[in-house]
Design a protein that fits this description.
4 strands; 119 residues; alpha+beta; four-stranded mixed sheet
């Protein structure tokens, strides 16, 4: 049995890795908070050096940018199972605390990303 770190650490490490790789959506993250079974990703795209690239970056997520931030909840591996057991919903908020897009149900997200699997 693998012991995983706290869900926010897993997501924070993934975001840091994506940010270092130059991913604009990751560079905009200012905070990640898990409260009970809910995770909130705080972003401030205006605060990054590549802010002009934001519109093109979000255009690749027609169902909403929360899909990018939920990436670690989609796989069918032990770590993603652990994340979904501890975090059932995820939302993205801007610098003023306004929600951007819909709240993601992490279990439904996994099903959407893996449609050939049974629930």
């Amino acid at each position: 049995m693998v012991n995983f770190p706290a869900p926010e650490k897993i997501v924070r490490d993934w975001i840091r890795n994506r940010s270092e790789a130059g991913v604009v959506l990751a560079q905009a993250v200012t905070d990640i908070i898990a409260d009970d079974a809910h995770m909130t990703i705080h972003i401030n795209p205006e605060g990054i050096a590549r802010a002009k690239e934001w519109p093109a970056a979000i255009a690749t997520y027609p169902e909403g940018i929360a899909d990018f931030y939920a990436t670690q909840f989609g796989p069918t591996n032990d770590q993603a199972d652990y994340l979904r057991k501890h975090i059932s919903t995820l939302e993205v908020v801007d610098a003023e605390g306004n929600r951007i897009g819909n709240i993601i149900d992490t279990a439904k997200y996994r099903q959407r990303k893996n449609p050939d699997l049974h629930a």
